[in-house]
Amino acid sequence: MEKLYAGARLRQLREDRSLSQSDLARLLEISPSYVNQLEHNGRPLTLPVLLKLTEHFGVDAEFFAPQDTARLVADVREVFADDTVDGAISPAEVDELTAKLPGVARTMVALHRRYREAVENIAALTAEQGMDQTSVQQPHEKVRDWFYARNNHVGTLDQAAEGLSAALRLHPGEVRAGLVAALEERHGVRVVTEELGTGQHFFDRRRKVLRLSPMLRPGQVAFRLGSELAMLESGAEIDRLAASGGFAGETARRLLRIGLANYYAGALVLPYRAFLGAAERLRYDVTLLSGEFGVGFETVCHRLSTLQRRGARGVPFSFVRVDRAGNVSKRQSATGFHFSRAGGSCPLWIVYEAFSSPGRIVTQIAELPDGKKYFWLARTVTRAAGGHGEPGKTFAIGLGCELRHANRLVYSDGLALGKDAAVTPIGMGCKVCERPACPQRAFPAIGRPLRVADHASSVLPYPPLGPAGGR
After folding, report:
1. Does residue 364 contact residue 350 with C-beta atoms inside 8 Å?
2. CATH 1.10.260.40 in the chain, residues?
3. Which of 57, 165, 432, 439 has its CA 20 to 30 A from that of 271?
4. Which tens digit of pLDDT belongs to each residue from 280-328?
5. Is the pTM for the entire model greater than 0.90?
6. How many CB atoms lie within 10 A of CB 246?
7. What angle in degrees, to the nearest 10, is found between the helix axes of 47-57 and 21-28?
8. 376 three-state secondary structure
9. Which fold would CATH assign to domain 137-310?
10. Whole-number Cα distances in Å, 217 to 29, 210, 263, 388, 468
């Protein structure tokens, strides 16, 4: 058994139960000094102590497993990449801070985000003309952060939806009739199909009529039915989660309610254990999963990024949706993959390459500047907006996981995944990327002085000074 040091987790568990070190020592039948050493990582957790902890406190051994701090490390590094923050911190110091004091690191990241938001709001409010508010964090971005902080998994809603799916005896790919019947029988809601102009659905709560557009595809119909059923079945829990989200504005709270209702709908149409079982059986083949459950490519990818229930986890994925201009309209992550808030995304990322091969799944092994490797697949999806001559919508959908999980995916078959793997170096946005020799750089890195030569040129758009400030 590999030595397991879990002092912070042990101390958290003890303090959550309002126990002293002496109390814990008596429960575990060890000395208080031994408990003190365990909590300060002076000694590793032994198997007998671990078994007693799981027995007495009802937690599984995974609770004490080393925490993946990759996301937190990336967030802290972005704080110190801010050109308005004085001082420098080495990568080793960041690693030590996040490993030993993760609570302090998270608080620092949260404070920095509030600081940036305050600075950006002041700049917007004091501009005399041409005020640009795009840099101010919008309510929908706050909602994204809420899901991101929870690894894109909301356990209470997921389990409630799975239970309702079982109670209604919904069958994969044939859920519409069951949802229509549930709305009628459980809540007296009548479902009708009629033209709604640009709308997709409208629920008249007073008349208890749910109107659906005939333009909706079968999978979309199921989700619209499921989202309204979510409000009726678990509205109290959705309201509680939205109220405890820490949002100052009503807009963010309402957006979170909608996001939670949509999450519930996904868990209802694609119930956790059934969907996870199918994903494992089909080796995460998105096309086959789409056919089996009767929903679209994007819906399957989004649901795959939520399978993080303790004791029954799927592959931890990051999910992203972008348009041709590089705008990220959806992003969720259950991995350490970090979506930068500064400088946009990397043009070398396979998600953008998908637009050159419409409808075809493309793959990439991408390496971040910290050496961590990810396996990505991407494909475009197109939606028709209406009749002839009306513009449609095209997005690229990306789904990625750490390279160590890639062998569980059918898309990795025939690819070298070891030291011979064909790796593409990418970054998390030019302003925070540490790759000085990238010819695709769109902005200079924050806090890095540039080499400006009057009578010389380079293939690099923003060449930095050397380590010693030389040319």
Report:
1. yes
2. 7-64
3. 57
4. 999 999 999 999 999 999 999 999 999 988 888 899 999 999 998 888 8
5. no
6. 10
7. 110
8. strand
9. Arc Repressor Mutant, subunit A (1.10.10)
10. 61, 16, 19, 18, 60
